[in-house]
Write a structure and sequence with these properties.
single chain; mainly alpha; elongated
């Protein structure tokens, strides 16, 4: 059993190293890739430190940093899922604070060797063990809240697997540790634990080898929205499947009509399902066309590109110089001024008021 356990852990470490190298090579600029590399390294530390022979023989103080990293991995999992699900994600100081807090609590508990017979010890251990469960829940919320907006089909499937498998593993591993008197996984339980992790990492590793990096992470050129929203053929991209499906040309033309003539982007609460219903096609087909043929990765970003284009035209128009910015935003399809201002500045680098002043002064 010890040899089997060692072989499984060695395989997990090798796959995690492969995943980290692939992420670092393909999209070093993307936050999801960077966080994924750190997460993979943290998992390597966790897998090695959880070896039964090592865990039972190491002095307590030597285990402190290893336990801190292992518990901190739960926070990294949540942050990684947020980054994977949101192309515009950027870490905030409180993300680092959450990781440091989880690591510090677990390190403090390990260093003090709390006894669960003490009230303080029970509280400290309960707080530490609640971290993985809480982070798994937060990861599920982060994935579910934007899942329907994701237009990258393979990424949609991969992130569903990562979240579902990650939550299932977290709950099962936490239950096994709670059933153990000292919170350690020993013998067959430890081997089953690493076998489950190997199965998950193997699926992710195979997916990363099969899925092009542009399907998982945005390319640098996609960071800013174009000056003019267009429905047109994307430039050739070796990483994107540009071979048209039968009927895609007609679907693009019909979509262009809805956008240009009927201005459906102005509709409140417009969804992929609603737009697909108007076009009379399945959701998956519309997502595929918008993503592979038109080059968009997020449905809201796709719709907002047309709203912003209309707003830019209005702000440049001398005849509308007295029209309030709020009115322009609402007429373009935005529901409030806050999201409009944020989206406008992200696309142009200036506020709507600054944009109007610059262009009207030039005219």
């Amino acid at each position: 059993m010890m040899l089997l356990d060692a072989a499984l852990r060695g395989t997990v470490v090798a796959l995690l190293a492969l995943v980290a190298l692939r992420l670092a090579r393909d999209r070093p600029h993307a936050w999801a890739s960077r966080i994924g590399v750190v997460f993979a390294i943290g998992l390597i530390v966790e897998v090695v430190s959880a070896t039964p022979a090592l865990e039972s023989s190491l002095p307590r103080l030597w285990r402190v940093p290893l336990v801190a990293v292992s518990v901190g991995n739960a926070v990294l999992f949540w942050i990684f899922v947020k980054a994977l699900c949101d192309d515009d994600f950027a870490p905030r100081p409180w993300h680092a604070a959450a990781w440091l807090g989880a690591a510090a609590i677990s390190a403090f508990n390990c260093a003090n060797g709390w006894s669960t017979a003490d009230v303080l010890g029970r509280i400290a251990v309960a707080v530490q063990r609640s971290v993985p469960l809480l982070c798994a829940l937060l990861a599920a919320v982060a994935a579910g809240s934007t899942w329907r907006l994701d237009l990258v089909e393979r990424r949609r499937r991969l992130r569903v697997f990562i979240v579902v498998a990650g939550i299932a593993y977290t709950v099962a591993s936490l239950g096994a540790r709670l059933a153990s008197p000292d919170g350690r996984l020993l013998g067959t339980t430890a081997t089953l634990d690493v076998a489950a992790m190997l199965a998950m990492i193997a699926v992710v590793a195979v997916a990363l080898l099969r899925v092009g990096p542009s399907e998982l992470f945005p390319a640098p050129a996609e960071a800013a929205a174009p000056e003019h929203a267009r429905i047109a053929e994307p430039e050739a991209d070796d990483e994107r499947d540009t071979a048209p499906e039968p009927g895609d040309e007609r679907l693009v033309a019909r979509l262009d009509t809805l956008i240009r003539d009927e201005r459906v982007y102005r509709l409140e609460g417009l969804t992929v399902a609603g737009l697909a219903g108007r076009l009379g096609v399945p959701e998956y087909r519309l997502r595929r066309v918008i993503n592979r043929r038109l080059g968009h990765r997020n449905f809201n970003a796709f719709i907002n590109s047309f709203r912003l284009d209309e707003a830019r035209r209005a702000l440049r128009d001398p005849a509308q110089r007295e029209l309030p910015v709020l009115t322009i935003a609402l007429e373009a399809g935005f529901q409030s001024i806050g999201p409009f201002n944020r989206a406008f500045k992200a696309a142009t680098g200036v506020t709507p008021t600054e944009f109007r002043s610059q262009h009207l002064a030039e005219s």
